[in-house]
Structures are given as C-alpha cells and as structure tokens.
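Aggregate trends can hide what the representation actually does to any particular protein. The sequence in question and its structure tokens are set out directly beneath this paragraph.
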Amino acid sequence: MGSGKNIKFALCEVLQFAGLGVPIFVVMQRFASIMWRIRHAATPSGDANTTYWLIVASSVAYVTTIALLAWVPMKYMIFKKRKFLTGRKKWRPVALAYVILSTLPCFGVLIASSEVQISNRLQYDTFTELPVSLVLFSLIFMDITERIRHCRLTGQANQLDRDADIPSSVLTNMQPVGPVGPVVPAAATASQVAADQAQNGASAGPAPGTGTVPVPRPEANGAVPGLPGHQAGQSGGHLPGQPAGQLAGQLSISATSRLPTYTLPRPLRFLCASDARADVFVDGFMFWFDTVEMVRMASHPGVYYSGWVFPIYIFSYLSVLRVIVMPGSPLLPTLGVALQDLPFLFVRMALIAMFGFVTPLLYLFKNLLVSLAFIYFNFMTKLRVFNTQRMF
C-alpha cells in the first residue's frame, strides 16, 4: 500500500512539473525560430544561430530558476503542512503557481511574437493550435491532477471520493433530504407538546394513558400538521422550544428529491455506470472550453497580425485566474461572469464586426445568455417591480 502511494505521488509530481516546463520550452523554441528567420532575412551573412540558442538557453534557465526558487519550496511547504498553504479552503497555491510561472510567460511570448512579426512586416508563424493544445492543456491537466490525486486510483469510488476529495467546478452537489416532520424537543414534556399542538390547530393529542406523543406526518401537499405553511415558510414561525434554524433545515427539500428517477431493465443497467473520478476529466475540460475557443481565435491570421491579439490574450488570461479558486466555491459564478462571459461577449462582438465570423456564434450566444441570466436572477429579481407573485 505504501509503495502504491509513493508511485502515485511521484507520478503526479513528475506530470505536474512537466506541465509547468514543457509549454515554456515549446513556445520559446517557436519564438526563437521566428527570431532566427527575421535575423537571417535581415542579414543573411550574420550569425542568426546565436540569437536562436540564446533564446533557447534563456528558457532552460528560466525553468530551472523557477523550479529552485518557487516550485520546490512551495511543494516542500505544502507537504510539511504549513498552515497558510495546507489550510487552503478558498484558494489553490499550485494553480496560482501555474498561472503566474507558466501561463503568463507563455501568453507574453505569444504577444511578443505577434508584435515582432508585425514590426518587421513578416508573417512566419501564427502559433496555430499551439496555445490551445499545449499551454491550456497543461493547465487543464494540472487542475485534474490536483483534484484526483487524493483519491485512490484502484477499486470503486467510495462516498468520500464522491463528496469531499474531488469537488466539482461546474456541477452543484445536491443530496436528497428525507421526509420532514416536526422534531419534538428533548426537554419538552408530553403536556407541553399537547398544549402546543392544540394551540396550533393540531387534530390529535397524546394517547391517554400512554404518556407518548404521536408525531404528525406531512400531508400530501408537503405541509406539516400543526404548523401553518405560510407562517413557517414566510414569517419564520416554528415550534415552541425549537430553534428556527433547525426547523428551516428540516423543511428544506433538495431539488434532487423532486426530480424523477429513471431505472433501466436489469440487462441494461451496466449502461448507468458513473464514477466521480471519471467525471473529473469531463468537468475539467468543460470548465475551459470557452477560454480555449477564445485563444484559438487569436491564431486566425487576420486577428493575429493586428492589435486585437492584445485584448484576446489579456482577457483569456484573466479568465484563467478562476482556477485559483477552489472548485465548488460560491465565488465561481460571479468570477465566471465578471472575468469571462462579459469581457468575452464584447470582444467577440467587436471581432465579428471587424473580421467576420472568426468565432462560432454559439459562444457569443452563450456569453450573452449567461450574463443576462446571472444579472436578472441575482439582481433584477430583487427589485420591487419583479418581486411579486402575480407575474408569470
């Protein structure tokens, strides 16, 4: 068992460090080739190889420096359970290191490559598919590795794996709540409960001579006998001697308990296979599709050799910052709209107006509808004109 954990630990660390350094090496090598062509075209008799190898050597020196000064010390403090790193309930230090040390330099080199080619009036390389397939893939893979590394990779997933170790950044974890009913306080006597039920309109009291109090069951419409529905749900009414928060928790019904459940015949039940560890991979890629499409749009020649490459990579990098927040955090919806959907909406509208349909309209509609739905349901419905039950 110990050797298996050590192998998994070493594998995760090697893959994460490879995802940190490989994108930098590849992007810098492509930038070095661009500089070699520019120097060779300007002075054919000059030594263009010197410029090429200086850039490649600088990438090796950069990765070595950040590994010794930032990556290794951070990992050491995490494994030594330093409180300001291991107590990370709202942010992820490994994701922050990736975004600052790897993604930011790669995006900076991509912008510099565009400006160098524009200033020299040459068009050698638009970095087609490179940012999408490598730079962002390393970031996606880091996110998946961080969320799955604490789970066992063999056997079936237990409840702990489903609920705690691999939280989702897209889906909301909802659990059904059992049948609700009033809970009798431990300190209350039978006579006190009987008086309370009679006062609230209860139809039945304690059975004579038994000394026990029957607990009323919920009615078909979800109301609890002895407890007015409107008072309990709106005015905050509750049983005497029972905290209002406890009653509210008992009366809250999860959305999943109202959803219909589907079962397949026994020969086809193997099609209902579901594992939270496999869902992490789907969730990880779904979280990044909009950013991936935005960065892919920058590789279009008309866009890459224009000034629009700046807002594309800047706003794409801002949307990447969402990975620093823990999955399942209540800040993710707000950050998603503020850092992704609203900026992407205006950028896509401007690009379509200037360059035509360089991006699918599906993503434009997605940014528009998500932004409008977030603003309407979170802010406008709180206004008095929308806060009424007489409309729709």
